[in-house]
Specification:
Layout lengths: L2 H55 L10 H5 L5 H30 L8 H12 L5 H11 L4 H8 L13 H25 L3 H9 L4 H29 L3 H6 L5 H10 L6 H29 L5
Helix pairs in contact: 1-12, 3-7, 3-9, 4-7, 7-9, 8-9, 9-12, 11-12
Length: 302
Amino acid sequence: MALSEIAEAGHRTDVLAGTKPRKQARNRRWAFLGVVPFFAYIAVFLLIPTGKLIVGAFTTTTGAFTFSNIASIFHAPYPAAFEFSVELSALSALWGGIMGFLVANAVLHHGVPRWVRPAYLSFSGMAANFAGIPLAFAFTATLGNLGVVTILLKHLGFNIYPSFSLQGLLGASLVYLFFQFPLMILLMIPVIEGLRKEWREAASNLGATSFGFWRHIGLPVVTPSLLGLMVLLFGNAFSAYATAYALGISNLVTIQIGQFINGNNVFAPQDAYALAFGMIVIIVITIIIYTLLQRRSSRWLK
């Protein structure tokens, strides 16, 4: 090969090498433009309202800085509302997490017919979004004072009222369970599928039963994910509003905020800001715990 040909080939290589970084830079710019709408949406509907809320929690109606708004949420009836909200969210998350894990594992069992899994996934996708007024009406018509099941139990000699109430902790958590439980199924199925087949095969070859596999291998691996998803369910229930409002529950933080904003009692936006700030603190703690648990579970589930 002549020296001129070698030089020309080298020149083409340099040109191509210089063109590649320019193309990559253009691709990065176009990729950035693609995510601009997402960040704009987050800024307009999440960051800006949250910033205004935090500022409002520490200012008076005239704009002066104060801690009195935050101090007010430590006086009745707000501590009881926070307590009931946390109890309701925790109980529904615990029930929903355990039941969702058991059903998700059963759906993925090899002996289950093929049509069961898509049926469960379809039901779970629908039920996880079935909340608000329709859900409250369904439970009122079923387990209310004059509900179908309530009347049926009364004819059988079992009167669940007045010890049971849909506005109480047990009744409200039962209502919340209707959308917490299927949501857990949807979230738990990928976690169980993440367990490596080699682990099951090795445990089976060593004579381990299904119970032994879950006791010594399966549960230790999925427990961080299981707890993390329960924390996610807690946050989902803690922020619920429409279902509780339709049921007539008044001692929830979200209901208290709605009353202040809607002016049912008195229009007091600063108190609503303070209550919402308290909810944000609890949600942030929830997100931190969830993130830590997910990091731990990601070491094994890949």
